[in-house]
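hey team, just a heads up i'm posting the complex here instead of the shared drive bc the drive is being weird again. everything in one block, sequence lines first with there labels, then the predicted structure for the whole assembly after. its two chains so it's a bit long, scroll down
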Amino acid sequence: MALNHDFVGRTHKPTEIYEVSREKIRDYALATGDTHPAYLDPEAAKELGHPDVIAPPSFAVMLFFRFGGWPLYDPEFGKKKEPVCVHRAQRTTHRRPIQPGDRLVQTTTVDDMRVLGEHEQWTMTHTIDTVDGEHVCTVVNTILSRGTAAPGEG
Amino acid sequence: MAARVRYDEVGVGTEIPSREFTVKRVDLLRFCGACSDYTMTHWNERVAKAVGLPDVIAHGTFTIAEAVRVVTDWAGDPGALVEYSVRRFSHPVVVPDDDEGARLDVSGRIEKKLDDNQVVVRLSASSGGREVMSGARAVVRLA
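-- predicted structure starts here --
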């Protein structure tokens, strides 16, 4: 198989700090076509009981790519540039919405790797906390690596 | 949190208003930038076809973001969303290089009522006549 299944159970050290801004939340929301005022207008967000605008729920997934996509680009992981990967499953759980001024760090653990016919997949948990240790949300991503399994495996 | 819909006014089977979305190539480009996800299948037809896909496909995260809007717009406060999940992106949303784009139809109904004013919404999303997400659910806290 192409991928290094020894990565199961490995945890990447916490990332650098990502500081959330109103403008990034606005850009992200608009890129999904979602113009809910809670994402764009601090006054409207306050009327809903939030201290400021909030980020859309899927904003948390962006951090995986923003932080470099470990383990995807770790040479030891064995993922070549091609063929490409596709998302197979995703779960995002929020303790509270992400909001401007949040200083977030993400810790990623590879939970599972398996061969599916000619493909491989891995599942990882991203734990997103503030730098002060407040848990904000958890993202679980399963990624399918197309056509990387060695013939005859799985 | 200030969801508009009251927990006491909904039951298992309550349908939430369905929606239809259009996804064009430019939408995927914008999402590539906003999400820092430049995987080539989302913008490069040559690469998409080379790996066996019919054409450029939408990001799974983009697709679920659209589906979840159906829930957050219905509930009234996106901050009321506790969780969303997709067990499998079962078929890609294929986005052609034309003026019409792809169509994504999303519907949902309440599957379960939980404690703490939370409900589980079972989501269904289809494009090109095929279900694109299997086992898709959202948990939202109502008023």
